[in-house]
Structure formats: C-alpha cells, structure tokens
Amino acid sequence: MAGNDWVNSYLEAILDVGKGIDADKSSLLLRERGRFSPARYFVEEVITGFDETDLYKTWVRAAAMRSPQERNTRLENMCWRIWNLTRKKKQIEGEEALRLSKRRLEREKGRREATADMSEDLSEGEKGDAVGDLSAHGDSTRGRVPRINSVDAFDALASQHKDKKMYIVLISIHGLIRGENMELGRDSDTGGQVKYVVELARALGSTPGVYRVDLLTRQIAAPDVDWSYGEPTEMLAPRNSENCMHDEMGESGGAYIIRIPFGPRDKYIPKERLWPYIQEFVDGALGHIMQISKALGEQIGGGEPIWPVVIHGHYADAGDSAALLSGALNVPMVFTGHSLGRDKLEQLLKQGRQTREEINSMYKIMRRIEGEELCLDASEIIITSTRQEVEEQWNLYDGFDVILAKKLRARIKRGVSCFGRYMPRTAVIPPGMEFSHIVVHDVDSDGDVEGAEDVSASDPPIWSEIMRFFTNPRKPMILALARPDPKKNLTTLVRAFGECRPLQHLANLTLIMGNRDNIDEMSSTNSAVLTTILKLIDKYDLYGQVAYPKHHKQSDVPDIYRLAARTKGVFINPAFIEPFGLTLIEAAAHGLPIVATKNGGPVDIHRVLDNGILVDPHDQNAIADALYKLVSDKQLWARCRQNGLKNIHLFSWTEHCKTYLSKIAVLRPRHPQWKKSEDNAENSESDSPGNSLRDIQDISLNLRLSLDGEKAEDSGTIENTLDSEDNRANELIMKLKKGVVRATRKDGSSEKADQSGSNKLPMLRRRQHIFVIAVDSVSNEDLIEIIKSAFETTRAERSSGSVGFVLSTCLTISEIHSLLISRGLLPTDFDAFVCNSGSDLYYPSSNSEDMVSPSELPFTIDLDYHSQIEYRWGGEGLRRTLVRWAASLVENKGENEEKVVVEDEERSSTFCLAFKVINTQRVPHVKELRKLMRIQALRCHVLYSHDGTKLHFIPVLASRSQALRYLYIRWGLELSNMVVFVGESGDTDYEGLLGGVRKTIILKGSFNNAPSHLHAARAYPLEDVVAFDNSNIVQTEGFSSNDIKSALQKFCILKD
C-alpha cells in the first residue's frame, strides 16, 4: 500500500479531534487542501455508526479491491471502526470496574454488619467450611455431585413415599411447549429449557409417591403456531410404561401440560414482552391449582384439599410467578434459573456494543434481574446444574452471598439464632437424560468394537455423509458437536489437530457445526468462525482428514455418536466455558470417552463419570496431547468407556428425580390452613378450601393496637402454643376490664371468638362483585369523595348485597377508623380493610356491644392471613438493622445533625415496621433499600407511600395485591369479579394493583397529587410491567358518579 497516506491522515485526525468528538462542530467533510479527507469524514460522520459484526465483511471487501486507493479507503474505514469500538469498550470496562468495586465494598460492609448483629463469635466449623459447600442449611456438597448414589437409600425413600400422594407444580411460561415433536431451535425461546421441563414433568409423574405433576405454561392460539399449543390440557405419557404403576394412577393422576391463557390471545410473543402479563398468569394459575387441589382432595384426600408440596419456577419469568403463587398459597417454592440476567448483562456489556440502557430496552434485563432477586427472597432451594452456576453466577446477586451463607449454615447447625436472616439452599442436580433408546456396541478385551469393520447399506445416511470426507474412514473419529460460535473454541481445536502430526496419523476430525446452505447467509459471527476453520483446514492441508457436513437432523445426533464409538473415537468439548455440558453426557451414554474444558460443568460431570481428560481450552498443546493419549492407548480408551457406561445412570431422569425428591422431602410443609369455626351455621355455608373456616376473632382494638410492645423477637420462627378454652376466656375478660386488647400475633390465639351470630363474614362469600378502593394519590378529602361516589353509583347493588367494598391503603386501622368516622362513614360500610401496605387484614364487626369504651374499636383481625405472610419475616432482627440504618442517616446543618428517617413506633405492627421520612431528599430510593436488605440476607418488601413521608417494611411475600388473592383463597371471592380503583400513580406497590384478571379503573384528573421524586428512580419503566392497552384496564377523567358508572358499564358490571 504505497505511501500509506491513510495512516498519516488517521493520525492527523486524532490530533485534530483530541479526546472527544464535537458534534456541533461544522463539517469539514469532502475537501481539505483541495482533496477528499476520509479520516476527517469518518471522525465526524461515520464513527458513531459502527457495527462490530461488519468488520470481517469489510476486511473481505477491502482485500478484494484492485484499486490501491479504494482499498486504502476501505481499510481506513475499518481502522476507524476498530478504534471507536476499542474506545467504547474501554469506557464501558471502566464504568463496570467502578460499579463492581462499589458493589464489592457494599457486600463487604453488609457482611460486617450482619456479623455484628449475629454477635456470637464464629466457631471453627464456621471458619473452616469450604467455599464450595454452599447450602445455608447444612447440606454439604463438598467433593461430590449432591445426588443419592445408593440405590438402597432411594429404595427406602421410595418405600417411605409410596403411600404418599404428592402434587407438584412446575412453571415454564415462555416458548412453545408440547409433549411430542418439540420444535426445538425454532426460536431462542424454544430450546433446551423446553425439553428439560417436559421431560422433568414426565419423569416425576412416573416416580413413586408422586400422584400428579402439572407443568403450567402459556396457551397460544396464534395463526403462526401449531393448533396443539392452544389445547388447554395435554397428558404426558411416560417413556417407560413398565415403570409406571397404572393401577395406582387415579382419575387425575399422572403428568400434564396445563396451558393458562394470558396476554394477547392470538399472538405468540417473545419472553421479553411477557412481563406485563405475569399477574394475569398468576391469577389463572391460582384458579387452576385451587380447582385441582380440591378435586384431588375429593379423590384421594378424604375431602381435604391436596395442596402442592412445591411450586417450581423455571427461568426468571416463571420464578417471579412461582414466588407470587407460593406467597398466595403458603406453599414452598424452588427455582431453576437456566440462564441468569446479571450474567447476561455483564457479558453484553463486555462486548461493548450496547450501553446498559440499550440492553435494558431490548431485553428488559432489569425487570428480569429483579425477578431473579425475588426468587432468592422466596425460594427454599435454588437448583442448578453445576457448581460454577452457584459460585460465579448466583454470587453476582445482592440476595446471595457464599460467605454469608456459610456463616448462616454454621449457626443453624449449632441451633444459634440468625436474627431474621435467611439464605436459600443450593442443590446441584444435573439435568436427566433418557437412555432406554440407546444401543451400545459391545467391545472385546482389546477394546475393539464388534462390527467396527462392517459397513452396510442399512447404516444411517448421516454415516455416509460424514465418511465421504475421509481418505481413511476407519481411523478413530474425534467428534465435536457445537455451533460455530467463538465461545465454543472450535478454531483452537482445529489448530491443535493441524499442528500435531502424530494425532493426524491416528485419527480423523469431525465437526458438526449446525446446518447451513450458504456461508454468506449465516450470521456474521458464525460465518467468520466457519470461514476461519476452512482456512485452517487449507493451511494445514487437512483435506481427507476433517469432516464438516452442511446438514444434519436432530434425529441424526445419536447415530453420529454411534459412528464415533464404532471407530473407537473420542468426543471433545473445547469451549472456553461450558455452563453444563449435556453433549458430554450424551457421548458417554454411547460409549465415547471425553476430552472437555476444565471450566464449568464438565468438572462435575467428570467427577461422576471419570471417563476422560479435562484440559485448559486456551492450551492447544494440552488439547492435542489429551486426544492423542486417548486414541493411542487402547486400554485407557476402554477403561474410560466402561467408566462412562457404568456411571451414566447417575445422569438418568430416574436418578434426577431421586435427588430432586430427596431435597423436597426435607422442606417444612406449608399450605393454607385455618381452624374450623365453632359456628356450625357459618361452617355449613363455607366455600373456603377444605370446607373449613377458622374462628376469626372479633376483637375490641385499642386505638394504639399497633404498638410493638408485644411484638415477637423473631416472628419468622415463632411457634404459638394454644391455651385451653377456660384460660382463653379468663384472659380475655381480664384484658377487657383493663380496656386493652391488642391485635398481636402472640396473644391472638388467646382471644375469644365472636359468638354473636354476625353474618358479616359469610356475606363476603355471597358478593357477586368486590370493589377495592386503593387510591393513594389524592388527599383524604378526595378519597372520601371517591368512596361516596362509588357508594352512590352502586346504591341498588349494595342494598341487594351483590356488591361489597374493600379499602386498601398504607394507613393503620386506627387511622382508617378516624378518617371514616370524621367524614360520616361507618366501618361496616366495608367488608374488609387491607392496612399497613398489605401486612394486616381486618374485617369490621357488626356487633356494637364489642365496644367496651369509646377508646376501643370493634374489628376482626385475620390471624390466618398473618400465618400466610410470615414466611422469612425478619422480626426483631430486621427491626434492629433498620433502626441502626435510620440512625446513620443524618443531615449536617452547621453544628447540628438532623435525622432523615426515624422509627414510627405508633404505626408499626407485628408484620409492618414503619418509619417516618423527615427529609425525602436525603432518603435512599427503594431499589437501594432493597439492595441493603438483601446484602444482609434480610428478606422483606420495602414500600414508600405516595408522598414519600411513610416508609414500610413488610414480609417479602405480603402486598396489597397478594391480600386480594388471599381473599379469593380464604373466602372464594373470584378475582375476575374484583374491581380495583387506583389513581394515576400510587405507593411503590402501585404496579401490582394494575395487572391480573381483576378489573382496574384508573381515576385521572387534576385531583391526583404528584408523586414523590422517590418514585421516579424505578429500576425499569412502568410500561415494561403493565399492559395499559389491556381490556381489563379502563381510564376515566374524574371520580363523579357518572364517571364511575361509565367505567363500570365498560366492564358490563352495571347496566345502562
């Protein structure tokens, strides 16, 4: 390139422009000193429009140019792109380095504070546990894959569970899911996860002790997908019918795919766009589970519902759904991430193509990450395929910390309090495989495969397609099966083979790199890798020794493994990092020894199978040496083959289910339960689960009922002791004489049930519609006017009893009472009150005699609701951390310090820790507070009021929307018959009130106050999680009777 003029102009332009590019600078485009300046042109105009994927094509076009001037211009273009790409990557790397450093400091600070709270000194056991031993509840996985290796042990487990009738719910909501002819690879949502969940459901359904398995997914009736995805129910037939005890399978037993309709009915949409419809799925799934639980109870439960023993979410969207279902039903939850958002975000940022904002816009990654954090808050067990996923991926999350998990586990082993801190267990359970269809050739004593010399016309067509590449097809085959992706490291494999002459003499190399018609039509990244491989084959003159067929079917893959085994070959996975390595298990099942990367899942697989050699994927000499060793040493090859075949059953679905059920078996059973009512008249009308109603007590509440004087030190671990009826009555009489009756969890069991025959609670079950007033963005005066307008609009329906009202707010019950009475309304105008941001549920008492003195309020507190939400509540340990945090927030004003947040003891209750926000400008945003809590393993739901002056910490699975689901479970109030009134904005739980099968009326107008700036710092836009075009959401201007009537008529609730 004579003169290299483009280099000089490149350097001159950098000197002219400096560190940045002035976008406002006038263009000096086409001419400089009488000639065109490509350097200046690309600095000013083209540099911001680069696309890294075009670099290779640019190089190819430049190299093909005959004109030196044109070639120089194209090369200059490419240099500018590379320069800008490098600069952008460096900038992002710097920002990420600062962010990671800050995160590391935050985590270390959180650990120190958590350790300070857990004041006892660490024992030697706490200090000495291996980092790999990650379970917070004492399950050691050190030095082995945590599975049941003893058949006798599982036989005992199966015998123990054979009389049990377990109901298991699996959830996987994206992609196209069906039992047969799965369209794997159709799109990015229909891949390995689809096959995994279907086969897991099928295998569990055939396991002793499991009566029914439901795999819940999305019902799709779109014209561009097969009709089978619109079928509501599909039964999964067991693979091995002889192992399935059909005589024990009842009317509803077995494994099923259940398709729940949610989102657009006629559209198949990608997983990134499913988030606005999660609430709708949860409501539909809740209805299904309730129906099946009752049906199973009638069939095999003696009339008592058979609740799921576990709800298992797969991927972030299903995990978020499982957490809400787990909280609503009080059922244990487990979670499998499959792939994780934080890991994907870091990988995308490292590529330097997109900013964090662009990534979030495309992938909704921040909503996904928050869903995964919620899974850590709610799950009993996190199931992974490998340790690498735990140690390197889950450890990126605020809610999981390997070191803190060790400390908590050691304390639990010793029976020492963790002060309200919780960490989910981790269980490494590799995916299962079905091996019954695999036929393995026998080998002789020298390691020769019988029939290896035989070739016939009956051989699979793919064999001849591969063999045609080889000069000597009888040499052992080195097989690699991976798409041509840089991460799969196939180019290093070809270099290793090409530079090792002894290996070339002994073996052939087969590369199965997906399907292609034309290299130019492939993605730029894949085409670049494939082109490089072809050039390496030419460079090392490997023609006749390397096969790279253009096409193969999924059904050909087992035959390809068989061919490699028939030639006494070796399977290799040289990826830079392999999350699991399913192909290694498939190869071992066909009798192939393996060479695999030492990074990731293959380490766990090799530990179990002991059937090959692990290598550094960056060391091509090590790769060549390992391959040569296996193909040249027949005894080693035979030993690795036999080890793999002997141990492969440990990766079967049967073994997977054994381990899975052994983990579930140790979970503390939780399910909806309440005492039977002593009022037989009410009991006979009950529609609640199990046909039993608890004697919810009518309590005379003191206006100061929310004082924390009797709060438990650690509500998450309280076990209440029931007193005798005499003691309960005497204790209540003494309290009434003193005029003090408190609604706390401790003395809730010692309060006398109402025997007045009040029909208020049965009326809840008779309502045709429930109107929920949850307007946070208005003044108290406007709130009362909204209530009165709603009352006026539904006067006739209220009189007939077909419509009832619920008030949902962040206020305490005493504040609500004062507000209603002062505005001329009665508590009995409402059926229920959801108070303290969803942490308390009250019913008004219709018996005026309950009011012992003017200072007391007659209300019924639902203690069963507390039993539903108390899961992982930090109690006193959480309060102590929050008080210390509040004390650390001060504003310096000269020599004085003013507090920013102070504890609000008057408004706090057992399950709501309330704080007053004095300076809203200095207090952290919700996402920062959530991070602070999670880093210290404190699980809670953080909420700011609409104006930012109230800050509430409630149980992690409590919320106002969850309280409405509880009313459905407890009293049978259909969610689709609920209408929720909200303002244009609300408290930080606002988004939860907008979705689901409920109807929502958004009251718009100038009466809405502007929300606090604290609500502006959302981790993701509201539009990412709420479908405002949903037919269940109606917006109306104003709150007059006519406005409300018009909105209700759109829902066909009121007639014209």
Which strand order does the major sheet show?
15-20-19-18-17-16-27-28-29
Radius of gyration: 33 Å
CATH topology of the domain at 153-239 and 248-428: Rossmann fold
- The CATH C-level name of the domain at 153-239 and 248-428 is Alpha Beta
Fraction in beta strands: 5-15%
Largest sheet: 9 strands, mixed
CATH superfamily label of the domain at 153-239 and 248-428 = Glycogen Phosphorylase B
- Which residues form runs of ≥5 with pLDDT under 50? 10-36, 39-53, 120-154, 447-453, 676-759, 848-854
Give me the CATH architecture of the domain at 153-239 and 248-428, please.
3-Layer(aba) Sandwich
Mean pLDDT: 80
From the N-terminal CA to the C-terminal CA, the straight-line distance is 83 Å
Number of contiguous helices: 35
What is the helix content?
25-40%
Q: How does the overall form come out from the CA principal axes?
A: globular
Q: Structural class from helices and strands?
A: alpha/beta
Oligomer: single chain
Number of strands: 29
Provide a quick synopsis of the model:
This is Sucrose-phosphate synthase. With 1056 residues, this protein is an alpha/beta fold.
Write the layout of secondary structure elements.
Layout: H1 5-17, H2 38-46, H3 55-64, H4 68-117, H5 124-128, H6 151-161, E1 166-171, H7 192-205, E2 210-218, E3 233-236, E4 254-260, H8 278-300, E5 310-314, H9 315-329, E6 333-336, H10 341-351, H11 356-363, H12 365-378, E7 381-384, H13 387-393, H14 402-414, E8 425-428, H15 461-467, E9 477-481, H16 490-498, H17 501-506, E10 508-512, H18 524-539, E11 546-547, H19 557-566, E12 570-573, H20 582-589, E13 594-597, H21 602-609, E14 612-615, H22 620-632, H23 634-647, H24 653-665, H25 680-684, E15 698-702, H26 725-738, H27 760-766, E16 769-773, H28 780-793, H29 795-800, E17 803-808, H30 813-822, E18 832-835, E19 840-844, E20 856-861, H31 863-869, H32 875-888, E21 890-893, E22 896-899, E23 901-903, E24 913-917, H33 926-935, E25 941-944, E26 950-954, H34 960-971, E27 978-982, E28 999-1004, E29 1033-1037, H35 1041-1050
Parallel strand pairs: 1-2, 1-5, 2-4, 5-6, 6-7, 7-8, 9-10, 9-12, 10-11, 12-13, 13-14, 16-17, 16-27, 17-18, 27-28, 28-29
Antiparallel strand pairs: 3-4, 15-20, 18-19, 19-20, 21-22, 23-24, 24-26, 25-26
Helix pairs in contact: 1-2, 1-4, 2-4, 3-4, 8-9, 9-12, 9-34, 11-12, 16-18, 16-22, 28-35
